[in-house]
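Consider the following input, taken from an annotated entry for Lipoprotein-anchoring transpeptidase ErfK/SrfK (Micromonospora sagamiensis).
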Amino acid sequence: MGRFARAGAMVCALAVTASIALTGCGPDPQKPAFVGGGPSGSPETGVAAPVGDREGTPGSSGPAQTVTISPADGATNRPVSTEIAAGTPGVKITDVALTTADGKRVAGAPRTDGSSWVPAAPLKYGTRYTATVTGTGTAGQVTGTSTFTTMKKPKSTIGSGLYLFDDKTYGVAMPVVTEFSPGIPKKDRAAVQKRMFVQTDPPQPGAWHWVSNGTQAYYRGAEYWKPGTRLTVRIALEGIPLSNGKYGNVDRRASAKIGRAFEMKVANATKQMTVYENGQVVRTVPVSLGKKQTPSSSGTMVVMEKKEATVFDTRDDPDPANRYVTEIDFAQRLTWGGEYIHAAPWSVQHQGRRNVSHGCVNVSMDNARWLFQRTLVGDPITITGTERKLTPGNGWTAWSLSWAEFVKGSALPVPDGGEGATLAL
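Applying the prediction step yields:
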């Protein structure tokens, strides 16, 4: 311990994998990435044929209202992340009929604020589309039509990841975690964030927060998710153009469930872990944390991965005193830097008394097994009173900040209490 490093950077073509390499009480040399999804560009705006009632026609109520449509009629080279929008102020989109040249209709839905209509999947590259827009404006219902063509498939794309898997059950602190390589430039983050959709059932407001270098963004609520919540996520980034000349590489969806409430709290002052299930104390576990030279991190972390048996190999540590190869039972990863909860039968005599680890939470074999059988990925653990604060981005650190601090990391304004769902997924 004593350093935070993440070698083995993500590459542009990422493969989904359900395992995270373990290195144990030291930096993770090959943290893999999980495929995820990137902003529609600034679409051109054009004027469609006049729409609405026309003066002098039966039932007319005044001059026709003209609605502008984006992309403009005749536009070419549009991103496949393009959304259909009405540019006329005061017009709210209610429906879009988007079809290909052979008449096939594209599925999609309006944003909840009616500002645009979002295709349910990326558009096809090099394809001609016709959009017929229906909306409501000051003169009542309006319609307009635009035909446009999408761009060819780009050669330069980002790598992106989504750490959420279909039909899995996670702990109440599980954030929606997206990752990007290279990081998203600050000027692009608002556009990218608009294409990252989250729904919760039952509805619970939340917000996005960007890590400072733009390589990760987290979505969470003001409080832990309610047990039984269904998270439905679409990271709709394929084809999104970025200011660095790259494009989003892929869309990714996931739907997962939140399980029972399970929480671990560790106090360095007492060297004890208090375990809560559904708000009730169910066990107290003696622990040994990191010694002063390699302290454990104070802050709220979540279980990121579980391995019933593995090997911790820290032979690449710059400090010879921290190099070892050890077989480990019941390992639960907390940080990318190498902090875990795990069985440590060699330190039982110290557990509850003093800190001797390289930064991990050492517990007895029986307690490690008991915890391992009950925890879920996404369960929170809060450690207090150590010599080191948790570094943002060293693991899924969405809960290391207060809600007021967390919303400051959003690239878009966040309503009081958080934002709700922005799209019917």
